[in-house]
Amino acid sequence: MNDLVFLSSQQVDAEPFTTGDVIAEYAGIERDSVNRMIRNIYQRLERMGKVGFKIRPMASGQESKTYLLNQQQATLLITFLKNTPRVADFKEALVAQFYAMQRELIERQAQFELGKQFSKSLHATIAESQIKMHGHEYSTFNRLIYKQALGVDTTKLRKARDIPKGEAITTYLSSDEAEAVRLVKNRVEVLLDVGMDYQQIKQALQIKGVVYKVTLQLPVKN
User: Which of 94, 107, 122, 167 is 20 to 30 A (C-alpha) from 113?
Assistant: First the structure.
C-alpha cells in the first residue's frame, strides 16, 4: 500500500488526494459499491470541498468516472466502511500517507520561502561581483547550480515536469530537491565572496559532486 495518496500538481501549493478506485482496491470492496456510497453521502462530502472526478475510457468503449477525494472527504468516507481486518489496515495506511504527504508539503513550503531569501542574496552577490556575462550572469549561475544540485539541466527539468515558461522551478521541487539547490546556492555565494570567477566556481562545485541526484521521466514522443 505505497501509492494511496497523490498530489494535484507538483507545485508547493498542491493538495493531496486519493480516489474512489484506490479505496475500492485496497479495502477489498467492489468499485461500484464505493461509488454508490460516494453518491449517497455526496452532499456531506461537498461540505468539505468540491468533489473532483476524472473520466477514463474503458475497454468496452464506454467511459468510467473516478472520484477524487481530499483528505477530509476520504476520512469521512472510510468511516462508513465496515471494519474488517483488511479495511482496518487500509484505513491506518491511508491516514498515515495523508499525514506524511501533508508534512512533505509543509516542508516544501518552508524550503521554498527559505530558497527565495537565498536567491535574493545570491542575486545581489552576483551583481556585486566582477563577473560579467553580457547580462546573463544569474541565469548562467542558475543553470550551474541546478546541474550540481540535482544533476539535471534546467531545460530538461522544465520539460519533464511541465513547468510553464516564466514560473520559478523552485515551486516544483520536493523538499529534498529544494534543500540541495539551496545548499549549492550557498556554496556559490561563499565562493563569489572569496573572489573566484565562474570557471573556478564550476570546478570547485564539480569536485564536491552532485548533491541530490534526480531521474527525470521525459515525455515519450509518438
Answer: 94
